[in-house]
Design goal:
alpha+beta; globular
Length: 393
């Protein structure tokens, strides 16, 4: 009975793999139409593992949970950014791109079976609770991250507005964890803020790259800056984790007079893309300084790298994070998809971003800020802009 069940499962799995590979022969480039032979021993091991879990695991597990977990595990074995997306995941991804979602206002990643905080949304439950980037989340409600795994822990942090959650957090550089109780809220992530510094110098803060960030930046510039002196700009990309590729292109296009912004390269024809700036924007000749730190990632690095390669801006701060890969959302059935890394970003000069990051033109580490401490990076950027303007007079 056992071996019969395994044979049936093995046969179905082999047939599925055969059908998928042949069904896609007409939809992919030639170099992808000759896959390696199906590894039969590993396929047998998968079928055996599946059977053992179904019959021996301490709790009963349904087929849907097991198979979705198998898909997700296969994707996660590739890199931290690929994964399986169920209906709820897709809704949250859409909400994130649009800038409205229910949550705590904290972006996290799985890091060696830990949950690490990447960035905190301003005026969110997480910020009001005192959470900061690089904090480590140890426990979520009654579940320890090391026991349930980082991916499952991240899933358990999701929920609807009004629901409470308890976190045990280890703050960066501190030995003792702290207990935090927060209530999820409906959060609107405004990705653009513009501040008038003085004497025609303006600060543009981008917290992330949402679908309409380019449009939002253009609108805010016209609303706040139109008709006023613009002697210099500071583009603050610190703690910006990235987001939508098109938004990064739109932002870079506003300040570049022309030339390539970014290229992407992968194995499929669709993954090979080139994006260029269109001339004619008002800010193309305005002196510009860009601020980055070690949490500036992805789309932030695209913008910083493009401006650096074209010598359009001075890059100031810390070496950036180094996430230079593109994830495509590929539907696999109704209300489900996979998020798969399909290409890599390259700067206009062909530099790879992934694993290397963007080195600043002027390295400047931001000290930990106390209540009375100034933003030293911003002060240095303002001083550099003033020197540039004076040198042109």
């Amino acid at each position: 009975m056992v071996r019969s069940s395994l044979r049936i499962l093995f046969s179905l799995a082999a047939l599925m793999l055969f059908s998928i590979s042949h069904a896609r022969d007409n939809s992919v480039p030639e170099k992808l139409t000759k896959p390696a032979p199906v590894p039969m021993e590993q396929l047998k091991a998968f079928a055996e593992t599946y059977w053992q879990i179904k019959h021996m695991y301490v709790d009963q597990v349904d087929d849907k949970q097991l198979l979705e977990g198998a898909i997700n595990g296969m994707l996660k074995s590739l890199d931290p950014y690929s994964g399986y997306l169920n209906k709820q995941d897709l809704l949250e991804l859409q909400s994130s791109a649009d800038g409205v979602y229910d949550g705590l206002g904290v972006e996290v990643v799985a890091d060696n079976n830990r949950v690490k905080v990447v960035s905190i949304l301003e005026d969110s439950p997480a910020e009001r609770a005192g959470m900061q980037a690089n904090d480590i989340i140890i426990r979520i409600n009654s579940q320890r991250v090391t026991e349930i795994g980082a991916d499952k822990a991240i899933d358990s942090m999701r929920g609807k507005a009004g629901e409470s959650i308890e976190l045990q957090v280890l703050p960066l550089g501190k030995g003792e964890p702290v207990e935090l109780v927060m209530t999820r809220e409906t959060l609107e992530m405004k990705s653009v803020r513009i501040k008038d510094l003085h004497d025609g110098f303006w600060l543009i803060e981008l917290s992330m790259f949402q679908r309409d960030t380019g449009y939002e930046l253009t609108r805010e510039l016209h609303r706040k800056v139109s008709g006023k002196a613009v002697n210099g700009l500071i583009l603050d990309l610190r703690d910006n984790p990235g987001g939508v590729l098109r938004a990064a292109v739109d932002v870079a296009d506003l300040v570049l007079p022309g030339g390539m912004i970014v290229s992407t390269e992968g194995r499929s024809e669709d993954s090979v893309q080139r994006y260029y700036a269109n001339p004619g924007d008002e800010l193309e000749q305005v002196p510009l300084v860009v601020l980055i730190n070690n949490r500036s990632a992805s789309a932030s690095e695209i913008v910083a790298g493009a401006l650096q390669d074209h010598q359009r801006a001075l890059i100031l701060g810390e070496k950036s994070y180094g996430k230079g890969v593109v994830q495509s959302i590929l539907p696999i059935q109704q209300n489900a998809a996979i998020k798969l890394t399909t290409s890599r970003y390259f700067t206009p000069k062909g530099r790879t971003i992934h694993g290397f990051g963007i080195e600043p033109d002027i390295a400047l580490e931001q000290p930990e800020q106390g209540i009375e401490q100034k933003d030293w990076m911003l002060d240095r950027a303002l001083a550099l802009l003033s020197e540039q303007v004076r040198s042109k007079l």
